[in-house]
Sequence to fold (259 residues):
Amino acid sequence: MKYSAEYTPPAPSLKVRFSSPTSTHSIELETKLDTGADITVLPQHAINQLRLIPAGRVSVSSFNGRQEWRYTFFVNLSFHSFKFPMLEAIGANRRDALLGRDILNLLKTVLDGKTLNFELLDP
Amino acid sequence: MVKTTLDMNDDLWRRFSLLVLREKGERKKNEVLTKLIKDYVERSGLTDDPQQLRYILQVEEEREAFRKVRDKLMQDPKYRGKYVAFFQGDLVGCDDDKGRLAKSIYKKYGYVPIYIDQVAEGERQVEVPSPELTRL
Fold:
């Protein structure tokens, strides 16, 4: 897969399909791989569209040490042949989603910044 | 419109009043306070969707029910370290895996506001630390 040039500098990103735990209604979102993120992040507009219901609350630390509360939501996500049901994610005001280490640690991720290609595998 | 009262330090209020008078003119304190509150709420990212807000209020009630019994659950090896689910003020499920717990609770009660947390000291914390460049 190619890095996305929508980010500066380009970033590993792919289309991920998210759906509500109890509905077949789903949306596809541009999703950036973020090895720094402990948890997958959904844009607030996706939470509203999927009518997700909060199920928890966590304290989130950002890069500058600032902490804020965020509600968590359970969501099903899939991309390529991978399916991850009932994943707990947080919401944020952003246009894309972030794929955190809660998912990345279940896969083998190969980042080739030289050629701007990446792979997600489950060997 | 909601009318409310605020308790605050006299000096702080006088300094605030003086600043508003100097920068905005007479009778503008309400306007400045409204803007400050609006900025504070928007910065938090809290949704303005009325249905989501109702869900959040319900989840906060369930969270309060959890907090009331958390210490007691901590003493019980059956619950300590595990994930528990609260619905309508009651503990309705427990599991090592939060996703499996959520699935079983939604299957039993439908897709309703529940609160799931780990029986552990303190609050759950996560890091999402990557700074991003944006072009304004």
Summary: Chain B has two domains: 10-44, 50-118. Residues 50-118 of chain B form one domain. The longest helix of chain B spans residues 50-74.
